[in-house]
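hey
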């Protein structure tokens, strides 16, 4: 495969048990990707470990440190700005907690040649989820069904955080107009990409629930995501 200039954006909040393993795993992949960790002042030493990895893999690993927990959505946007300023062709997003295996990176970048957005999808043939309790299944199924209905999204997995965006598409988006700061940013981003006529493709991934550290998704965040769907519907109708 010709070497694409790709950046994997990894938001972190207290992921010291996972981030080192993830960075090693990404560097070992045949797909050549650089890594940007967007850390929101984790108290567990995440940033210090990333700095060690920056020394171990010179030029391949970058760290953006923010002053407090500012949300998953704004972490993605900060990562996109970084990718655009440095002329990466592809910006990938993935979770730090090893739920998203680096081994899918190669196929994602391969598919990205034919698409503007590639989603690592749990809900197409070959995809799946391991180790989730029933309430996470119901939540994810509900969020996806509503997002598809309310926002007319076509993808099967609208809430997967494992994605690859063509930066040419990202350049056309109005980041300042994105109001979701948290998890709902995933739905908002997909909706505005689809509205722009982006070619969206999915590749199957198996999602493994985290073994170490804690989930940062809160009930407040979930409630906010559902409220966001209605706000977004209004926004899309005006676009
Ligand atoms: N920078 C940053 N990262 C976050 C924030 N909230 C969650 N994350 C990261 O986003 C990813 C997904 O969060 P996670 O807690 O695993 O969500 P879950 O898989 O839905 O339970 C992980 O890498 C988290 O560390 C945040 O406010 N700021
Ligand atoms: Mg997780």
């Amino acid at each position: 495969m010709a070497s694409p200039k790709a950046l994997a954006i990894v938001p972190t909040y207290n992921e010291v048990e996972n981030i080192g393993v993830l960075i090693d795993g990404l560097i070992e992949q045949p797909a050549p990707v650089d890594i940007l960790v967007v850390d929101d002042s984790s108290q567990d030493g995440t940033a210090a470990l990333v700095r060690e990895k920056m020394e171990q893999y010179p030029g391949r690993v970058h760290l953006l440190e923010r002053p407090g927990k500012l949300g998953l959505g704004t972490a993605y946007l900060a990562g996109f700005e970084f990718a655009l300023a440095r002329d990466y062709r592809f910006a990938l997003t993935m979770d730090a907690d090893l739920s998203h295996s680096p081994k899918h990176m190669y196929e994602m970048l391969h598919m990205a040649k034919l698409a503007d957005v590639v989603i690592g999808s749990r809900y197409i043939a070959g995809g799946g989820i391991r180790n989730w309790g029933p309430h996470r299944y119901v939540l994810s199924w509900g969020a996806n069904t509503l997002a598809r209905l309310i926002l007319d999204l076509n993808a099967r997995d609208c809430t997967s955080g494992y994605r690859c965006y063509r930066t040419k598409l990202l350049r056309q988006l109005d980041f300042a107009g994105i109001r979701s700061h948290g998890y709902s940013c995933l739905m908002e981003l997909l909706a505005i990409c689809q509205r722009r006529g982006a070619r969206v493709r999915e590749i199957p991934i198996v999602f493994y629930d985290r073994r170490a550290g804690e989930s940062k998704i809160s009930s407040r965040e979930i409630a906010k995501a559902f409220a966001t769907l209605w706000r977004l519907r209004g926004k899309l109708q005006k676009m």
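The chain has one domain: 6-238. The longest strand covers residues 6-12.
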